[in-house]
Each structure stands twice: as structure tokens, then as C-alpha cells.
Design a protein that fits this description.
Helices cover 85% and strands 0% of the residues. The protein has 171 residues and is mainly α. It is rod-shaped, with a radius of gyration of 39 Å.
Length: 171
Amino acid sequence: MPSASLAHSLQNSLPDCASVKSQAVRVSFRFGMQKVLDYREQCEEEAKVRLAQCQQRLKEAAALLDALAAQLQEAQSALAAAPLMETADRWLHEQHIKGLQADVASAALQKRMQEQLTDEARKLLAARAMDRKVLEKLKERHCQRHMREDSLKEQRANDEAATLRYKISPF
């Protein structure tokens, strides 16, 4: 009988499986630099918006340049088609062509500036994406390490519970 009471007291002193599992409940992973990662994601989104705006302005500048170039071509062909013109009309057409040429040169300059701004925005977006990816990889590594540590803790707790439960009593 004493061995039965000893076995009963041993069994009562051993933690049951549910309490061991509750002690080893996986603590959810929390990345310490999450706010920094969120900020980097926000910066990347802003860079995407900026790139989209620059691309839109570049399209508009290209369309304006094409329209002005077409007008210039049309004015030059109209001047060439009418060889016999009064001097005043000819001067007026030439002045119009000179104005269109200046407008085309200005639009070409604006287009080149927009191309540069678009390239800068693209480079900025690439840099911001790299910053975000670096932090995401760091977060992934921390999460994997956390999962390994958590798994080891759970394994140790299970091993300890198994050792205590199946320990052969010396009596």
C-alpha cells in the first residue's frame, strides 16, 4: 500500500500534459523594428506615387512636344506649298514658324527635365524597395530564430514532462 500512495503522490506532483503545454504556449512573434519597417513601406509607397506622377508628367511633356512638332511641320509645309506670297504674309508665316521652333525647343527641354526627374524617382524607388527588403529579410530571420527557440523550449518541456512521467521509481 505504501508504494501505491507514493505512486499517487508522485502522480499528483507531476505536471499534467495540459499544464506543460500551457507553460510552453508559443509566444507570438513580435518584430522589434516593426515601426521602422512600416515607415520604410510608407516611404516606398510615397516613392511609387512620386514615380507615377513623374511618368504622367513625362507623358504629358512628350504629347506636347509631339503636338508642337506636328504644328511646326504643318506650318513649314504650308509655307513651302505657297511660294508666291505677299511679303507681309510670308514674314508672318516665318515668325509663326520661329515661334513654333522656340516652343518645340522649350518642350524638348521640358521633356528632358521630366525624363531626369523620372529617372531620379525610379532610382529613389529602387533604393526604398531595397531598404524595405533588407528589413523584411531581417524580420524573417528573427521570426525563424524565434520559431526555432520556441520549438526548442517546447521540446525541452516535453522531454522534461516525459522524463518525470515515465521515471521509474526506486521502490
